[in-house]
């Protein structure tokens, strides 16, 4: 090759086509990423704009008013109570079962094939559509008891929460140094004592985070409640009666023709999104040490 | 993920625990420990049983409809509650088409987010927050995304749908007057909802690729994007496809947001600007009012189809993602 043909190559190592391709792709990638951030910002902005003005004390303490009536206090206190009760039932089932399963996976099953199977099934369970979980709860509880109930809703939510609790707890338990377990055992502790006094105690912040994420997820779930707990315009009447929930209320009122019901839906969204964002951001801060080297 | 809080002190690895039995063998301890071991084993097995129980119960409830309609249920179109004639095709079609639109939109955007937040285009302190904000969309309850869809997204996209109809109505998929809710908008809503799944998993997969591959490619004179397309994406391909499959699994089963924006029409229409329906949306709309045994059976049959579909898609996805993460470590 001649000297003259090499010199420009050294000055401009990239051909124009490659330069254009490189900058073009960078631009496209950043535009698409920007596009990806838009929906969340738009949703949050709209919830704040539409929901916050209607979020008054009377909304939190009153029953829904009959449609079209003016001057009657209007609210969704029954839905708040219903959501608390059903998420409470779901927590009572899923937290103990979930933590015990995670203990088995992290502490008792090193290298066993069955642990792989359980972990696989739990991951698959976390991907089962929530509406299918609702159908399952309908078949198991509603058809047996012959009626929609808070119990059926709580049962459905517990199946939604279970995989989240298991996977998060197992992650937290795995981070506990093995030396702590051996030290505890060397001091004469039984397996039971080691697990509860040392392993669980050390992993508690991680486990709490996982449990709270599951609770946040369950409080926003709608599909499993639609035909298990149904809805109710009244206060909570017992575990075997149809029960209102914030998420089903948002669904019912979103498509309502009455503007004041639409408004209530937005106000309820503020509460749900508030809980969900608070838990997610807090858990991110708590576990941020784990992600530092990313 | 695997970094321990005190890496320097951790000379005892988890693998060393294998074969070491910490269970108490003597005295009072042994009874408690035996019981405890049985308890955690029993509970863990019961979790596995739930999945089988779920399939068994839904299959059992669907049996009247399966016996009545057989496999023909899958490709017949009539859904008449009064006549007790049920065919699932419009709902299967709607589920598949809306999910396909979602994947078509979310895959390139999710990949862009994964590349921008995993490669060195941005300073590290900016990458994680962007990835986190994108992942946060997954935390927003689906019913609230639907509420936003009704009051913000549909009015915003309606002029665009009109424009598509006016200028491209010669293309069959835009060949109808848009009325607001449509298959296209359902696909877009689904794309928004599965974007975090695709972005987060693709990002994990890209981060897991050894640095040496990037350095080697750069030292051969490749630009960052040539490295991305010829080295990173090919070596991450099974993980990215797995991420797309997981996203697809989520899209297939997503209920509330779709129900609220798809328009719930029982007609199959080639035009994406027409309203449609999906399996989850039909279940959400009809289950609470279903009283006839055959109607419940037909709905259960639909739920069974959806369950089987998502189960297969998710299992393939999990195997693909796991397969790659095993590759990345070696």
UniProtKB/TrEMBL annotation, chain A:
InterPro entries attached to this UniProt entry: MetI-like (IPR000515), MetI-like_sf (IPR035906), Phosphate_PstA (IPR005672), Phosphate_transprt_permease (IPR051408)
Superkingdom in the source lineage: Bacteria
The keyword Hydrolase appears for this protein: no
Compartments, record wording: Cell membrane
GO MF entry, a single one: phosphate transmembrane transporter activity
GO biological process assignments: phosphate ion transmembrane transport
Domain ABC transmembrane type-1 stretches: 80-283
Annotated Gene3D superfamilies: MetI-like
Keywords carried by this UniProt record: Cell membrane, Membrane, Phosphate transport, Transmembrane, Transmembrane helix, Transport
Xref: PANTHER family: PHOSPHATE TRANSPORT SYSTEM PERMEASE PROTEIN PSTA
Family: Belongs to the binding-protein-dependent transport system permease family. CysTW subfamily.
Name this polypeptide is given: Phosphate transport system permease protein PstA
Organism of provenance: Phormidesmis priestleyi ULC007
Gene that encodes the chain: pstA
From TrEMBL, chain B:
Keyword Transmembrane helix annotated: yes
Keyword terms, alphabetized: Cell membrane, Membrane, Phosphate transport, Transmembrane, Transmembrane helix, Transport
Residue ranges annotated for the ABC transmembrane type-1 domain, each copy included: 92-317
Membrane topology classification: Multi-pass membrane protein
Major localization listed first in the record, in broad terms: membrane
GO MF annotation list: phosphate transmembrane transporter activity
Bilayer-spanning residue ranges: 38-59, 91-118, 130-157, 184-206, 227-248, 299-324
GO cellular component: plasma membrane
A Pfam cross-reference name: BPD_transp_1
Family under the similarity heading: Belongs to the binding-protein-dependent transport system permease family. CysTW subfamily.
Protein name in the entry: Phosphate transport system permease protein
